[in-house]
Amino acid sequence: MNIRLTDTVTLHPLVLPARADAAASPRFLEYADVRNRSIRDVTGRDDDHMTPRELLPVLRSSADTTKLQWFITVDDEMVGVAPLSILGDDEGKTAILVISLLRSFWGRGIGAATLPHLETAAYAAGVRRLLTWVEHPASEDVPLASPTGFGQIPKDHAARFLLRHGYTLEQVERVSTLTWSDPLVQRIRNLRASAADQATGYRVVQWRLPTPDEHVAGYAWMKEHMSTDVPDAELGMPAEKWDTDRVARHDERYIQRGTSVLVTAAQHIATGELCAYNELAIGGDPTAATHQEDTLVLASHRGHRLGMLVKSAGLLTWHEQHPDSPTVITYNAEENRPMLDINEAIGFAPIAYEGAWKKQLT
């Protein structure tokens, strides 16, 4: 049902089409365009750009997440999008909400008019904790420190909006990029060799999605620990349960998007256990930025340079196979110093900071 917010502003639920090609609804194609433009208005980058074909599987619900989407119009012109992802791992009590408006429509009260309706819809669906991640570009605004004691963001218009509406800053994440060059490749080779010397009793295994049968159980175990072992501050992200079916659903979403994913893992030779992993992903454009996604070392295997081993081995293989992708982008909590140490040694440099925000719904 459409909701009239003001005389000119209306909130609409988005109906997903069966396909994302030329047969897709004009509203869906417009949604994809406004999403991309509104993100670029904030970040100044296109590394989160998705074609309609790539975006459609991301917006579909699954057994793990319920997805709802709205779009905002001013006099029938789409000016913003608002996806809500309700996480199934804690019985739907936690959700991730985003309101993304085109810059030319900032400061008109559209977000303030929209947010209560989305929070009401989330609460009616059983959500009690809302989370959102917002990039805060460098500005002259006064700084707002993370309660973790690591990192800060400017108290910009987005931060002021969230604070005014009852959200609290819980964590700051660093956005970092790696730019390829011949000297960088040699540096990573040296780091891989040094890490391999210290990772006695381990070997590197790699695969492309879909996950081979022999690695499904180990991959599921590591993905489950990824949800509990990384710094979470006070966000309260639910612990995830992973099994063979969930790995298959995870892999299929990437395949439907046309995204290529390389998984690089460390395997304990004596037991065959997978104990560390790194993921690199790219969409259909070979000249686009690569995304470094999960990296984890299981607690029982730390202290053997496995984080450096899987990251460096993965990057070297990736660069050989995707030489036209000029950069790699990654996100890390500012308090995750062990992972940041690895990234900095490899050559990643910070380019931006995100705030992780939370609101308890009552």
Query: Residue share in helices?
Result: 25-40%
What order do the SSEs take from the amino end to the carboxyl end, as H and E?
A: EEHHEEEEHEEEHEHEHHEEEHEHE
Largest sheet: 14 strands, mixed
Provide a count of the helices.
Answer: 9
Shape: globular
For this structure, the quaternary state is: single chain
Instruction: Give the end-to-end Cα distance, rounded to a whole number of Å.
Output: 24 Å
From the helix content, strand content and strand pairing, which structural class follows? alpha+beta
Total beta strand runs: 16
Q: Uncertain runs with pLDDT below 50, 5 residues or more?
A: none
Beta-strand share of residues: 25-35%
Mean pLDDT: 97
Radius of gyration: 21 Å
Q: Care to describe what's here?
A:
There is one protein chain. The protein has 9 helices and 16 strands. By secondary structure, the chain is of the alpha+beta class. Strands 1, 2, 3, 4, 5, 6, 7, 10, 11, 12, 13, 14, 15 and 16 form a 14-stranded mixed beta sheet that branches. A two-stranded antiparallel ribbon has the order 8-9. The longest helix has 18 residues. The mean pLDDT is 97.
Please name the defining characteristics of this protein.
about 350 residues, alpha+beta, two-stranded antiparallel ribbon, about 30% strand
How is this structure best summarized?
The chain is α+β, with helices and mostly antiparallel strands and 362 residues long. Helices cover 34% and strands 31% of the residues.
Please describe the topology of this protein.
Layout: E1 3-4, E2 9-13, H1 26-43, H2 52-59, E3 65-74, E4 77-87, E5 94-97, E6 100-101, H3 110-124, E7 129-135, E8 143-145, E9 152-154, H4 157-164, E10 168-179, H5 182-198, E11 202-208, H6 213-229, H7 244-257, E12 260-268, E13 274-282, E14 290-297, H8 306-321, E15 327-333, H9 337-346, E16 349-360
Parallel strand pairs: 5-7, 14-15
Antiparallel strand pairs: 1-2, 2-3, 3-4, 4-5, 4-6, 7-16, 8-9, 10-15, 10-16, 11-12, 12-13, 13-14
Helix pairs in contact: 2-7, 5-8, 8-9
